[in-house]
Records
---
Amino acid sequence: MAQELDKVEVVTVGVGWTAGIIAAELGKEGVKVVGLERGENRDTSDFQMVHDEYRYALRYELMQDASRETLTFRNHREERALPIRQWGSFLPGEGVGGAGVHWNGQTWRFLPYDLQIKSMTDQKYGRDKLGNEYTLQDWGITYEELEPYFYQFEQTAGISGEENPMGPPRSNPYPTPPMKSTPILDRFKEAAGNLGLHPFMMPSGNLSESYENPDGQRINACQYCGFCERFGCEYGAKSTPNVTVIPTALDTGNFEMRTDADVVEIIHDGEKATGVRYVDLKSGEEFIQPADIVVMTSYVMNNTRLLLQSGLGKPYNPDNGTGVIGKNYCYQILPGATGYFEEEKFNTFMGAGALGASVDDYNGDNFDHSDLGFIHGGVMSITQTGRRPIANNPVPKGTPGWGADFKAQSLRYFNRSLSIGAQGASMPHKNNYMDLDPTYKDAHGNPLLRLNYDFTEQDRKLHEYLSDRAAEIMEEMGADIVERATMPDHYDIVPYQTTHNTGGVIMGDDPETSAVNNYLQMWDHENVFVVGASAFAHNGGYNPTGTVGALAYRAAEGILQYRENGGQLVQGNQKSKSKLAQEAKDQKAKEEKNDRKLA
């Protein structure tokens, strides 16, 4: 029998970037918030002397325990999905701070094109640019509306950067200057400039200088040690929830954080949530936490799974396209090129997670797609993240996989190779989605989430195009051997690619095609807000964190409005069902009138 606790105003499921933002903003306004995190607590003091590549980068010390909870995977619906036994393609974090602890710090704003991708694509290229099997849709918000929230997140995180000549417009400069450039980055920028491109320093959550954010939290200057991705920062120099929003939330005195609390159900009466049920992983006890407002702030997969498991929202049906929960799962592709230099050596050992130079000339709709069989693109970058010895072994194609020649080539090219990579945008497809697995269960006896995903024709064409462009830059950089990245026949759950999973609880302005409005409030359970990259209607050509942060700040504003409005659906620039019906009626009347004129 679960023990029922005293009711609170707001409960969050997970304590990472999004929960930290929600708790900090609500706590400042006197709202009592309880954050439930299934992992353990941790802060900068826990990351001292963590430069252990084997323990953290290869054995995933900071990641979700796949032996207790995982997901199943298949490429196609006719296949049987099988459980993932060890993380490979992506790495969900666990513990306070979530994936925001072990991220690299590359912090971007999605483009105006991203947020209105369906309408802008249709207008410029026609409705048949992509086939009907692609479930492309607008996000229900414009860049102009979201821009202030982007800057709010950048101020909180102290992002270091410089103006992107091909990027979205900015009302304010970055809070801190860009990171130090290096000979490797300078070489890339010179080559890109020679080709008529527009290089710039990558926006970074590894700070170029010590910074105090508007909430009074101190973030230290990066030491360029090269241990960012998959590691916590022992210097407190990487913008994470643990050094920014979570301390701010705790400082308000209105935020209570409970660790080892695994939420297994959102309790609801069919119209509104009444709270959550969770298991204490240390004692095994079950608790019910009643709440006026439930905020899902977990990872993409868990947000989707918990809604499906709890019966909130209509599950997506790939056969007829109805339903929204689980719809539009997207990932990313990784085109690029590697260059091998016969005589020159490079210092690739030092670096930082977001130390890099980029070009945006091939991102979004920054180039003409009229004669191309795909839309969108991706940011193209060369990064100096710190090449660690176990996981890095670049050798030219044709090198044997073992033996004396393999060893000789490995030693020769370890510091004589450079790579340019692109993050190719992922467009939603009717067959790429998430649902509950009918066979496999977790440690609590609940169904695992099932991931149905494979690369599309859009992915393949975009991958080839961007890899060719990366090879052109690498050739201009003077590499003796240039090898383009190749794409496998099917997506595989290994090896690691990115932790940039999106979709499943997508946003929009139509309750029939989206799960949440542009405050990330569920249409049909108005006291439930689902915050994170699960709201992305597709995946852009950037890392998602900056856009996740912006949406979280907007969601916090929406929750406060919801309270002030006495529990009514937050309208803002949203369209109610009645308004949508009236607009459809008016449009039909207009079309009939035009038809009569033509007749």
---
Amino acid sequence: MPYAIRKAAVIGAGVMGAAIAAHLANVGIPSLLLDIVPADAKDRDIIARTGLQKTLKSKPASFYSKRGAQLVSIGNIEDDLEKLAEVDWIIEAVIERADIKQSLYNKIEQVARPDAIITSNTSGLPAHLLVEGRSENFRRHFMITHFFNPVRYMRLLELVPTADTDPELLPFMRQFGTEVLGKGIVICKDTPNFIANRIGVYGFLSTIHHALAEGYTISEVDTILGTNMGRPKSAVFRTADLSGLDTLMHVANNLYQNAPEDEQRETFKIPEVVQQVIDRGWLGEKSSQGFYKRTKGADGASTILELNFKTLDYDPQPKHRFDSIGKARNLETPEQKISTVLNGDDRASHLARETTADALIYAANRAPEIAETIVDVDNAMRWGFNFDLGSFELWDVLLKDPALLDKVFARRDLPELVQRVRAQGEGTFYRTTAGEKQYFDFHTNSYQPVPGARGVISLDALKSATGKSAVVRDNGSASLIDLGDGVACLEFHTKMNSIDEGIVEMMRYAVEEGSKQFRALVIGNEAPDFSAGANLFLVLMGARQGAWDMLEAAISGLQQVHQLLKFSPLPIVSAPTGRALGGGCEMILHTHHTRALAESYIGLVEVGVGLIPAGGGCKEYLLRQGASVESQKSAKSNGPFTPARRAFETIAVATVSTSATEAQELRFLRKTDKITVNREILLRDAKADAIKLAEAKETGTWQPVQPQMLLLPGAGARLVLEQQVEGMLLTGKISEHDSIIASHLARVLTGGDCSPVTPVTEQYVLDLEREAFLSLCGMEKTQDRMQSILQAGKPLRN
């Protein structure tokens, strides 16, 4: 039967349930959030109401925009259960007790539509146990949908069907989860705690056992097993604090009880000292202390202390230095970093080898039992725990280096699956053939294509494919790549995709020469960030050396290439993801259309380094705020001061959107721009948008914009803005140099010495931008701010 989800209900308004409702709102799906009625409650909806309010205040934010909360209705399961008949998907997210869940299902079954999808957000209870005693129809429409916390940001969504689940429901939920919810979907077998928690919690407890037995401190472990071992900065113990020690205990106990044949069962016993910590209520972030505790000194400074396993007191964290970690820090790729640490001979390398061997052997032994493919195991670890490499991707790093393999697995037998891939495969779990990535299928002992979302575009695959090269041109800083169907992609290669001369040159080439070969252009890449802006190092060096002609030429070149994008007859679509700051934001402002990833953080942040936007950002943002002559003629116009004031209020404090939705509210994106929630399909969607524009151009229904005239308020309005700045300076809210930067910005946004009734050209505003930028570059305090960002990665308030 065909499925569709237009409205949902979430039962259980705790941390997970409320966050699931928030994410449904993020993607435009209304939901009903229900919970129990407390005894003697005057407000019968108080639990659901509180859950929603906490979610609105959560940090990081659960909603793309707080306006999304309008899509969440609250209620309780006594008064509002019959409303479940109106929804397509019912998500149960109540306490992890099978009896309570089964009792709730009995109530749900009496009111839900026969075709309603019913899922549980359990983190480990077996699906077949939950549906015992339910009707055949209920079982056909039931599965587990295990979200990870925080729901908005964690990509992993584990789907666990039962033997009775409708065969059509699983592919529907897989596509819905991918395309609508933006999740990375992993299909799990119905085994205790599924894939991510089964392997991840084993690795965590194995590490604790090693630390306790060999005397490693908490901060030592996190220093060793953090980013240099391909893990997030929170490493091991800080990650446990974030997820909650009670959650860890629950998962571990569930595995110990429900996996009696697991050869590593005893590892899942919570160590006595950890149980003491939990019994004291030190559960991590939720209780303000766990393995770590944040305290404030008499001077108000915050200090993070670590738990001492021997005394259960909190001690200051010492600095830990290891030769292997020091060498790894200077390397680029996760593979290089991990290999360096594992190859070392110090205390860090010893722990890294022992814990890595434990985790990889366990993953190889469990994979056929808990998953259909090694790809699902790897995706679960990367998406569920933010590891750089999945278990079998890490196996391949070792399998390609026999000496390192022997060093890590000294005195240990390699698992049967590893022996099989060496004997019957090509010696590694993954291979690339004709640009296609393939994995070793343990069912058939053959290599199969790595599955992905429908129509995924991989720039790496296009560039490495045999036959005619997809790379049209490459200058080191950027490439022009043929995506097929008459669409090209402009990809950046610099560090953090910062804009340098090579990128500017390639943008010019893409428009001027690319239009002879292609009918549309996408500007996008597969890096974590779209672009962190202009190359600040080059700006600082130019300013320090007094190379003003060079700097002016560079700024002018950036302005003109952005104008070239804006007025190009070739339809251009930008596809930002992650950070699009400064010059990266300016680039977006000048393209014809944007297809943004939902998790895009867009803003004009130049004031943070003592500058103002000068690549056309001020000019375009004024136009977005309604500064064009055409907009001023509108009946809704409040005059030329309002656009200047709005632009000033946003740019002067370096406002950055916390999502693509908020970027639309801030007008960094247009209302007509589109949002994709899944990183994997962003380029696919951007290409589709580009083709639509190209087809519209071919039918005469699309044409590039023409130069616009702006009506700006002039010197009188500048004085008003400067008075506001002076008030902030007098009250100590900003520094003197902040006020100087703000004054330069106010002059640009109000049009310098222009008349408030005489329109000015776009070039006029560009000239004001460039003049202010160069003037600020010459100031020592601005140069100090640039240097602070480059050296310490932190803004300087001087």
---
Amino acid sequence: MYLPEDATINNIVCYLRRSRQDIARERRTGEDTLAAQRKLMVDELERLKTPYDIAEEIGSGDKIETRPVFQQVIKELKEGKYDAIAVKEIPRLGRGTYTDMGQIYDLIVNKRIFILTPFKTYDPQNSADLRQIRFELFLAREEFEMTRERLIGARYTYAKEGKWVAGSVPYGYRLNQNTMRLEPYEEEAKVVRLIFDLFNNGLEGKEVSHKAIATYLTRLGITSPGRAARWNFLSVKRILENEVYIGTVKFRTSRRVKNRHYERPQSEWIVVPGAHQPIIDKETWEKARAKINLKNTSRPHVKMDFSPCELAGLVVCAKCGKHMIRQLNIQHYRKKTGGTSVYHKEFLFCPNGCGFVKYRDVEAGILNYLEQLGEFDVQKLTEMFNETYNAQKEAAATLDVAEAIEQKKAELRRRLNFICEKYEAGIYDDQTFLERQQEIKREMALLENIPQNNKTPDDTEREMVTLKENIKTFLAAYHAAKDKTAKNNLLRGLISAVYLTKTGKGKFNLEIYPLFSFTK
């Protein structure tokens, strides 16, 4: 590695990433190829006596959009932070689409970015070097396409032979690395049989849904397919609909276009019955399929409505602190006379399994509380809220609230920096990063809205007068509103939080905290 005499290179970025060959070699030998690559490049760069930074891609991907570290490198090259990029070989820059290669090529040429490798330095103003860069980029892409074609061809051949090449191994099976065929794993296989038995025959003589089966398995302490403690209804549904459990291998049933999956025509599918030992028999499978088809045909398609419901984001489980979630179940019951009855069951349940209650009962409880609050005279309201104020004052005597809030904010900022580092390192994908970022932002917003209670009794009395007036206005507007989201906005403007404690079957206590900001 050397620097051209006529070149001004003040800063270098060294980009490291694993190639597909590196990943394959690591699987065979356990060698850390990225560490070996780093040592090679650092040894070469140290000889140049020029400042350099290391940009290390933890993951791997053929497209720029799947390599967050390289995206940052491109950004910094465009900004002029670096004059050269050091790589083990030019193909390390990418084997992506021709659009990706064009973006890299244009950047190198327009900014005169030198490419430094252990064996040669490429100057984009040298026509011979530029020709070599174009050739290397083109050859890298062609080599990638040829390798992919060979791998796809091999997978098609293996699939037609009944070997497993369809991704992660299904729950209930293990993959024999020698034969590349699935073999039942009895500890999980018996759970699969239990799921089909519960779905086909019910529990204690009663029909059970996917969610009920998931809850039952969780209570038994059985580990889910994702190795989590809790099962969810989707895991149960996938098992009941997967033909792998009767020994059938399916491959090439869908295609992916820009991270979206589309079903292929059945004429293109590769289907191999009897490819491996089944976990359930054909009769059990057919019975489950008939039941699933009956459920699907008996229920008309309903357009999903994701707008917030009346109590969205308000009710918190007092036992575990999780926000409780609305669930609507539509039950069809066959009458003795031959007809069908349809029942809409609306519940508010804790995602941690602490319990569930009727949704409309909770809504009625909140409205009843507000109605009673609006009927109190101002003096009684003032006394009640002054008691609350004094209790809060005594509790705060041993705690610096402002300091605690600042400590929590500092912790949230550390968490945000941590997930940013993981995202930049390629450990978190876009969706995971955005979800965790939004969660932290929500917590930060809640901290910003915590009031500092410095009101005097006179202030409280004045607010109680406004409170009574606003409650009357609120109740009239709430009962007149037709839209559930409008009702939610009204409640959230009046109530900070509602803590629910389940006390028995269908029974619960509500601890309601009104907002004071609405009185201003």
